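Continued from yesterday's entry.
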Amino acid sequence: MTGVYARHAGSLFEDAEVHELLALTARRQALSICTPREINVSRLLAWLLDPSEGHGLGDRALRSLLVFAGKTGQVEHLSRSDREFLLPHNVHQLALSGLVVNTELQVNAKTKTGARASASRGARGSLDVAIIDPTTKLCVAVENKFGAPQSREQLKKYRQRLEKLFPSFRRIYIFLDKFEAQPDDPEWLAVGYSWLSGFLLEQENSSVLSEDVQRTLREFREAVQDQDEESASTSSTNKLITSVAARHQDAIEAMCDLARPKGKIFLELMQELAADTRSAEGRARMALFKLYRTRSMLWDECRQQARFAPFFEGLSKQFADLDRDVKRVNSWYSLRSWDRFVSPEYQEEYFFPAAVRVHAHDKRFNVVTYLDLRSLKLDKRDALRELVICTRKSLGGNSPKTNGDTFDVFRSMNLTQAAAVEEVRVRLGWLQSQLEKIA
């Protein structure tokens, strides 16, 4: 009887799309080989955000980053003034040519006399990227995590130190994390690498940039890109990831668990697997381990996509204009036809006017159906607000839960994957039927 790992190995190695995916994601450029280290990415990021550098983008990258940060859920913890500052139309009016960009900036106070400083960057208190504009009195702090965990109260200490150093400045704190982790300090705005790779993708074919800059931007994106972001949702690689993740969810889950067990380092695990290669099951375990190690980040991405693949597969059959945004533990589903509600000033970058949000925790899902009025035309806001209030009253609820101009309509918690997929399908259909009534 075939063992479980042998079955998983067989299903993966027999799939032509798996081999095509491995070929497409093989690294070929020098930058993609040497870049994926946190400190190198931070230096490239600082280069990108500095208007005085030779990329020819001016302050476009910084404006894009601020607008993206202003869309994150953490903005509710900011002052009203800072929330308004981060609105797209306000950001695009800023004059940012006089700023200074620095990397690995010493932020925390010096150690006590006689104390020996640690050799680690985190212990020294070095902020990855600091952007200071003395003219407009703006301080933007960017802490970049390329897979490394947060140190205890690291972000809080950076923030408190910057508050003392620049008390009269507007301070915006941005937490840029490869794996979409949430900052442990509420005033930091969580921005995933979806912003970075999306911005690079938009700019790398610009006719106003030199060929050298275009090539650098392309290699930078390929070196750091997660394949789950909206910017790459139509790429051949992302389609393969979605397809492979949907068909091999159990095999990918088992492979990732096998290759990343808790409490074992690489050499110990390698020794254990190598000691059992005589049996078919033992050889299959080694094959899966090596397959994971060849593209660890790719398979982690597939594991993430496997959570939400059934949602896309099911919804795309019913909704021809389905729009989605998939992150590590959250995904959003909307329809492109609802763009008609968006104000012209937000057409380039806006919030979904209406959507169903799915949050994954372990193997359970929370589903929230909501309307977001922040980017809407003024003459549409009252109609959508009234829709939410009437719906909640008809369900016996009180006034809808709000977060500024975001209104929750339905909330379903702790669902199985199958139940969550059905809930999203029903709620998206409900939104479609209701919004068709609003011209």
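--- second protein ---
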Amino acid sequence: MEILIVEDEPLIAEDISYFLEEAGYKKNVIVHSYTQAITQLETKNFDFIFLDFNLGEDSSGADLAKEVNLNYMIPFAFITSYADKNSIQQIKVLHPVGYIVKPFNGKEIPAVLELGLELFYSYMDTNKELDLNKINKFANSTLTPQEINILAKLIEGKSNKQISDELFVSINTTKTHLKNIFLKLDVSSRSEAMVILAKCQS
């Protein structure tokens, strides 16, 4: 399992990595900015992301969460110093699988990881096939065969790059297909699409 840690405070990032390693999760990559995180996401396949809500730069943790929801199928947990009602409301709409308030203790980190993974994948059964009739009932127009292929890859948790490689198309083509799929399903992100797909498994 590979874990991406996005935290602009190096000591906190190292602490998270240390607690994960203590729990047996050894493959951790630390970055300190939105740009570094995007570079990693484009080149590697991660299973989970620990994400600082306030990255201290122009692009925030919220911006990165939106990018993950739109273009990647990776569960993430926010790490933040804020627990007020307004911050919680901002975070809820981004659909994290966990939320850790600083300062945290070592036991929280692996617990959030394990519970988050269970939550994220519990509603999907990758062994079941999509029911095309059900999908088209949810869609406002019929999906093409290639769009159905891409939906099947979404269920498998594939990233845009993996989908592109397996279907022998460019990443831009994959993104265009996803945009059309989201429009047809009347959703704005992968996470919202996955909720519908879970209902369309036979």
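The chain has a mean pLDDT of 85. The first helix runs from residue 10 to 22. Will compare against the first tomorrow.
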